[in-house]
Design brief:
168 residues, two-stranded parallel sheet, 7 helices, 6 strands
Length: 168
Amino acid sequence: MWLAKLNSASIDFLFSLDLSAKAQEVLSESTTDAPTILKEAHDGLAELVAKAHEEEVSAESHVLIGKSWLELIRQVLRAEHDLVVVGTRHFAAIQGILLGSTGMKLLRKCPCPVWVTKPLANKEVDSILVAHDLRTAGELAMELGCSMAGEAPECQTARGTRGRVSGI
């Protein structure tokens, strides 16, 4: 939320559940009042929206059924998002090399920049390394890195953005 707040941006929280057609039918016909996965998703995202509002960040949530990477791209196209931030889990060695299918598909197919992150185990970020290719994409990466660093005076890009980052 800090990145959205720094940039006066809004946040869309999205949860996508990949279900077979039969599972979707069973879920829609369910008459039980017991909590469902979709209700839990709505409730969890509502908490995130409330936290964003406490931080004075505009936010909304979406619970969708479909392949995660495809639903994320559809939401980017619908709302014209500028950035997708997606988390990845720790996997076994071979799966870790592959990054995960959602992250890889987003990196290849998403029409806007994608930031794939993993859990930091409560570690504070003291420094940021930005890979800069001396092109527009590198400039965008540098601006994002500077924004994350809190616009400190030690960082200067060609566009005048500041922050504590190391560019390569």
